[in-house]
Amino acid sequence: MEFKQSLSRRIVIGFVLMTTLVAAAFASGIYLAVHMLEEKLISGVLSGDLDRLLHMDNMDEWRTRPEPDQLFYFSGGHGDFELPDYLKGMEPGFHEIFRGDLSYHAFVRIVAGQEYVLLQDQSEFEERERTLYTTVWIGFVLCVALAVFLGQFLARKVIEPVVRLSRQVRHRDQLLAMAPPLAPDYAADEVGQLAAAFDTTLGLLRHALTRERLFTSDVSHELRTPLMVLASSCELLLENPNLDDRARAQVQRISRACEDMRALVQTFFLLARAQNTDASHVPTVTLESAAHELVEQWRGPIQSKGLQLLYRVEAVMPGRFNGTFLHSVMGNLLRNAQHYTDSGHITLTLVADGFMVEDTGVGIPENEREAMFQPFVRGDSQRGDGLGLGLSLVQRICASQGWEVSLSAAEPSGCRFKVVLSEGAN
Questions:
Q1: Predicted pLDDT at 386
Q2: Do 258 and 326 lie in a common domain?
Q3: 415/284 same-domain check
Q4: In terms of residue numbers, what domain contains 351?
């Protein structure tokens, strides 16, 4: 069974339940003790008084009634001793009799076929008994109320170190190397052990983050140089008038691949440093300018496959956006559409809240669409040597920028990707 309440509320509930059970046990014990003692003690007294009356020599002695709150009756008696109808036929032993507002303890004995009954007025005793029960009930309610109050107080005291530890762990500065360790702030108890475990885990995370930052910086720095060399070499080769058309097309393809790789390196670098990147130093572009640039970039490769690239502007969302991320998202969606479309067209449409990329390709079944944004997941119609990272990268970029990407079916076939941009996100 999984508890949905908070830890402090569970402590309060447990404390109140324990107190309620203990108080209920005590109240029940008092109630049973009163009844048992009442029957045992009073029945013993009445039994002795009845025996004393039965051992008297004559009825005149019975009339003396040594106890003023007692009444004596027997079957066959007359006058004051005549047995009332409501007392006839009772079993021998102790009984409680209630007549209107009056109540009696009765003890019955049968001797030689005759029924003898001794009554004792217990109205005063019943009043005291009701007072006792009322006191026990009030005490029970007060115990439960006190348990709620003390439970909340104790829960706050018990949970306070855990709450403080959770706040420290959630604080982003705790991941920084300069943050002090957590364990010295706590006693050597379970919370202190938990803090020490967090210190160990945070140490491993800091080490991993340091290695990631160094790796990101090294990759970004080391890959830029060979990419610049390749780009420069391609430019020089394209200036050579002796290149035939086939060789020129290959050089242009290499140049585009270098540019794509440079954009990918920059995208991964910015994603890895997203929390530490100053947005004011990130180059921004408008949606329309990014769309024009990518349409020109992808028109050739798409048309060379025998497809049409349609560009529509229904509305243009104002504002400027992170240029690297916007180019990467739109470019990956166009590349994905070109990759999985054999005939028909690919459409890039600008709308009021973002843009859409539609194709007439093979499409994706509805039960597989959500998984397509996971890393290393590819559709059933796998083609080429891709690793299935394009849509995952799109999802990561959109999540980091507060954008939304969705996948639906296009008519009559194919996929429709829609990206809703968050205005003002850079």
A1: 41
A2: no
A3: yes
A4: 279-420
* Residue 42 near residue 55 (C-beta atoms within 8 A): no
pLDDT tens, residue by residue, 284-303: 889 999 999 899 988 888 99
- Check if the beta carbon of residue 103 is closer than 8 Å to that of residue 130: no
Helix axes 245-272, 190-238, angle to 10 degrees: 160
Domain assignment present for 160: no
Q: pLDDT by residue (tens digit) across 122-148?
A: 766 767 777 888 888 888 888 888 888
In-domain check, residue 185: no
Q: What is the number of other CB atoms lying within 10 angstroms of the CB of residue 278?
A: 7
Domain count, the chain: 3
In a shared domain, residues 309 and 379: yes
Structure tokens at 92: 């021998």
Flag whether pLDDT at 163 surpasses 80. Answer: no
Residue 322 sits in the same domain as residue 404 = yes
Residue the block writes with tokens 């990268």: 393
- Specify whether 240 is located in the same domain as 325: no
Q: Closest Cα to residue 322, out of 278, 284, 290?
A: 284
CA distance 230 to 251: 10
Asked if 412 and 335 sit in the same domain, the reply is yes
Given phi > 0 = left and psi -120 to 50 = alpha, else beta, which region is 397? alpha
Beta strands in 3-90 (DSSP E): 70-74
Q: Same structural domain for residues 315 and 398?
A: yes
Distances (CA, A) of 267 to 38, 288, 319: 88, 20, 21
pLDDT of residue 1: 45
Longest dimension (CA), the chain: 153
Spatial separation of the C-alpha atoms in residues 23 and 10, rounded to whole Å: 20
Dist CA 192 CA 195 (whole Å):
5
Task: Using the structure block, give the residue that is written with the tokens 């994603």.
Answer: 271
Supply the angle between the helices 123-170 and 190-238 in degrees, to the nearest 10. Answer: 30
Bridge pairing between strands 345-351 and 308-313: parallel
Q: Which of 388, 417, 396 is nearest to 405 (CA)?
A: 417
User: Are 106 and 94 spatial neighbours (Cβ–Cβ below 8 Å)?
Assistant: yes
Inside any domain, residue 169: no
Q: Is residue 88 part of a domain?
A: yes
Cα 291 to Cα 351: distance, rounded to the nearest angstrom: 12
**257 and 333 co-located in one domain:** no
Q: How many CB atoms lie within 10 A of CB 62?
A: 17
**pLDDT above 70 covers what percent of the chain?**
77
